[in-house]
Amino acid sequence: MNVQSRPGGIGAAERADPMGANQGIERPRVLVVDDDERNLLAIETVLEEVGEVVVARSGEEALRHLLRGEFAVILLDVYMPGLDGYETAQIIRQREQTRGIPICFLSAVNKEAEHLMRGYAMGAVDYVFKPVDPVILRSKVAVFVDLFAKTKEIERKAKAEQELLDANLRANAELLQAEQELRRAEQRQAAIIQSLPIILYLEPLTCTTRCPHFVSGDFEAMTGYRFADVLEQPKLWAARLHPDDRVRVLAAIAERDRAGRLSVEYRWQVADGSYKHFHDQAVLLRDSDGSPLEFAGTLTDVSERKLLESQLVQAQRMDALGKLTGGIAHDFNNLLAAVLGGIGLIERRAGLADDHLKVLTMTKRAADQGSELVGRLLAFARQQQLQPSRVDIAALHRGVNDLMTHTLGGRVELEWSLAEAGWAAFADASQLELALMNLIINARDAMPNGGTIRIAAAHQSVGERGGPAGLDAGDYVVFSVIDRGTGIAPEHLEKVLEPFFTTKEVGKGTGLGLSMVYGFAQQSGGTIRLESRLGEGTTAQLWLPRAGEDEGGEADSAPELANQPAGRTLTVLLVDDHPEVRATTAGMLVDLGHQVIEASQGSEAIAALTANEGTVDLLVSDYAMPHLSGCDVVRLAREVRSELPALLITGYANADEIGERPDDVAVLGKPFTLAELAGAMRKVTGD
Q1: I need a labelling partner for 314 at 20 to 30 A (CA). Which of 80, 111, 222, 576 fits?
Q2: pTM of structure
């Protein structure tokens, strides 16, 4: 199908717009439908100046043209093969987008009224009979074209006016919004100034003590007094100064009048009788000639800052107390090492009667309690050392269950689910117990109305690319503590492991529990994972490495070593500046079947080693000694004997306190038992 059209001359729309105001607007289109090519050519020639002529040779082709654009008028032949003019007109009138287009029938016959009425019934607005008179046809079509052009022009103008109206409405709306934002900003600014713990004031030069004539901010909220009260009582300000600050502050006010500036902090008694800390600052304002006008100042409530400063001082005091506690515990460990070592020697060597043995047992129990007390002090000072060993899950279950039964109360129950396989965790048993207790207490606090806390122990194997982040490949025992409590908000889930972060009410949590559990898990080679939803509960998973078949606590094998000597007799060089500790340690070494060379300081030990170079099998040295530390003694000794096994004994519980030492040098904390000494010696000598 070819659509034939010719630009033609000046159309109707252009004739109505001689100044070219409508330049660029498309010419109205006329659709001519006739199956006779000659008629199409003739009509197209007649109408080419009226509008853009589009021709169609059938009703079907005409309908396709109508789908692709608008037309001012349709000239439709009545008789055509296929769809005739009446049927085509009926379809045009049935379509929503084309029913308003005027239709003029072209007919060579049937001028009778019956046929005319049928055409009008089909939607025709006029008839043009063939042969067509060019003038009549052009005139009739021009009317519809002009009407179409004017309608479009009206629509364009209405659209332009609507766009202008919309733009005006948008501009007014934006202006209104800007005004509202400005008012809101002013209100926010006023609210901020009103809520800040600061007062702006102006004060005249000549004033008895204090007499501001202008203040801004919430004066009453800061002081408890109305500004009118201050104006009525000129001596109120000075009278409410803290007695310890009064002389200093009045002197600063007098200096302000001379120097032209003020900056002083003081305590001031507000209306409720309490004292607040104020920072009072002022500068002298001058006019354009440099003459003094008045003082402009700010009065700031710094009570919170002062409170934070006092808390910082308290934290520093606690830190210093922790260091002091660690030092005291170290000295106590030395004393307890001598006491417990001596008691052990008496117990093993002296044949005591039962009543004497009973007294000795009581003394040993008291010394053991002292050792436990030192352990608590070291825990407070955060100097405790982890002692990982094989942890039996069933025993852990019994211990935690017994400890928590009375702590949780009757409204919370524990439900345990343990794995059937016999995997064991490799961790510090006491710290693992404490970590589970922390998680259980957190779960209890999340269920104020009570409920069931489920504790499960399961097995997980982590491949090279699997498992929680940070875990090495291997086997793990996973402890899960599950509650159906309030849950943790998503924005808090990443923070709850941070020290001092807590979602509990003030006074109900330190924010250290989960961070301690996390630190323990990380130090043990594991991790902790948290999953939580508000209103549904929380699951805390503690991942710990699985204990190997040959891994066990030192206490498991030490009792055998306590009752029999090591596999071979060693010559041990013992260095300790504490005579009592050195004596008891030497006695324990003798009881284990070894020979002992004693030295009271590092230089003496090096001399003894040089003199007995070929016979010394093991160096046992105290760490904290004057002149030369235990690490220094080991370093100098290995200059004489490069492969000499060495063991450091210390009252510090944390190996990190031992400074830089070779990896093959073991550390044994005081006080220690015969079994622990034997185990440490076995570790460094390989016997």
Answers
A1: 222
A2: 0.36
